[in-house]
UniProtKB/TrEMBL annotation:
Name this protein carries in UniProt: DedA family protein
Membrane-spanning residues: 46-69, 125-150, 162-182
Record InterPro entries: DedA_domain, VTT_dom
Recorded coiled-coil stretches: none
GO CC annotations on file: plasma membrane
Organism: Neoroseomonas marina
Swiss-Prot/TrEMBL keywords: Membrane, Transmembrane, Transmembrane helix
Domain VTT: 43-147
Lineage: superkingdom: Bacteria
Length: 183
């Protein structure tokens, strides 16, 4: 919260967003929300910063999983209590592929787990990049839209129900892809 008030807050927002996608435990929402509330006219720009830096950080997470799983990724996942998550994600990637990123990238579930697991599972990089861009943009721009439209009143709603909102959006995205697949 203190970083959100710092003169170089945009830099710190990008740094937190980048790091959260590969190693850092705190999501950028903790900075994005107060920054966008303070300057609603900047909400879209702030969402863009989060999107770009999150995807770039996701590339680092993917590389960690792909090239350095045993040396770096495994200890990181273990440190955060997610050692068993990789096996689950690998199974999910084999079964559902890009849909895993589309769903998990929207939710507050630690995105670093998705990026590292995608690299460790050797998910096609182009698919990883495209789905990461879509889901991270959807997540951060949805948050920015809520803040711009509802202002400070949405802060409590976001803090209490962000998981519900993003999960609903994720379900709608999946249903849309399923509809396209079977039409």
């Amino acid at each position: 919260m203190l970083l959100a008030q710092h003169p170089r807050a945009r830099f710190w927002l990008g740094a937190v967003s980048f790091a959260e996608s590969s190693v850092f435990p705190i999501p950028p929402d903790a900075m994005l929300v107060p920054m966008a509330l303070a300057r609603p006219d900047q909400a879209w720009r702030l969402a863009a910063i989060c999107t770009v830096t999150s995807v770039l950080g996701g590339i680092l997470g993917y590389a960690i999983g792909y090239f350095l799983f045993e040396a770096i990724a495994e200890p990181i996942l273990t440190a955060y209590g997610h050692a068993d998550a990789l096996a689950r994600f690998e199974g999910w990637f084999q079964r559902w592929g890009a849909a895993v990123i589309l769903i998990k990238g929207l939710t507050p579930i630690p995105y670093k787990i998705v990026t590292i697991a995608a690299g460790a599972a050797k998910l096609d990089f182009a698919v990883f990049l495209a789905t990461s861009l879509v889901t991270r943009a959807a997540r951060f721009f949805l948050l920015a839209a809520l803040i711009r439209h509802y202002g400070p009143a949405v802060r409590d709603f976001i803090e209490k129900r962000l998981m519900l909102v993003t999960t609903t959006v994720a379900v709608l995205v999946v249903l849309g892809f399923l509809a396209l697949r079977y039409v």
